[in-house]
Design goal:
By secondary structure, this protein is an alpha/beta fold. About 25% of the residues lie in helices and about 30% in strands. It has a five-stranded mixed sheet with strand order 3-2-1-4-5, with helices on one face. A five-stranded mixed sheet has the order 8-7-6-9-10. A hairpin with a 2-residue loop joins strand 7 and strand 8. It is globular and about 55 Å long. The two termini are about 15 Å apart.
């Protein structure tokens, strides 16, 4: 049976869970020149074969040479577009560093116990507000990171969905990238350590 390797695409790097511990190791692609408001992994497209080679070598250093028995469970920023999701999947599955890939946005990983909740997070380009129910995103709103008003986001969160208006729905502030200070009063803060503990064991069938 294939083994699952949790992996996180952050705002500026890739984190891969270590085989021998619960720690995550950082992979930084050599010679990247990221542009403002554009996810860093877009740069992979310029030198796909070379970047795939570096990632495969990185994975070998952690998991050995028999990488075709692993599935990468990739956690991506909440504003990842459908086209970006396709690129991410294709890049890693064709790198030779795994057997297959599965993908899930950060918001869906914030709680394993709550049936419904609101997530607020921030990527390198957007503030993302979304309502999650039964492990699926029901409503999502994006706000430009440069013009977003925290009070507006908080106000929108109260009427994001009819479930929210008429029921108590917990709010999780995803502070994984340590950039959510102005949203702390909205709800429960999820710090980097807590987030990585939540995804250290992932059931790929639920992704």
């Amino acid at each position: 049976m294939a083994k699952t390797v949790p992996m996180i695409i952050t705002n500026n790097s890739i984190l891969v869970k270590d085989r021998e511990s619960d720690e995550f190791k950082t992979f930084n692609m050599p010679s990247l020149n990221p542009s403002p408001n554009i996810p860093f992994y877009h740069e992979f497209a310029e030198k796909i074969a070379e970047d795939q080679y570096y990632f495969k070598e990185f994975m070998k250093g952690i998991y050995g040479k028999k990488l075709n028995k692993y599935i990468l469970a990739i956690i991506v920023p909440d504003d990842t577009s459908k086209l970006e999701s396709i690129f991410i999947n294709e890049f890693f599955v064709n790198s030779g560093a795994c057997k297959a890939v599965a993908q899930m946005p950060m918001a869906l990983a914030l709680s394993k116990t709550e049936i419904r909740y609101i997530s607020v997070s921030k990527s390198s380009r957007n503030v993302i507000l979304e309502y999650v129910r039964n492990n699926e995103t029901v409503v999502k709103k994006l706000y430009d990171i440069h013009t977003c008003d925290a009070k507006k986001v908080m106000s929108d969160a109260e009427v994001l969905h009819i479930d929210v208006e008429y029921n108590h729905v917990p709010v999780f502030v995803n502070n994984f990238n340590m950039n959510m200070d102005e949203y702390f009063e909205m709800g429960e803060i999820i710090n980097p350590k807590q987030f990585m503990e939540k995804i250290s064991v992932i059931d790929v069938e639920k992704i």
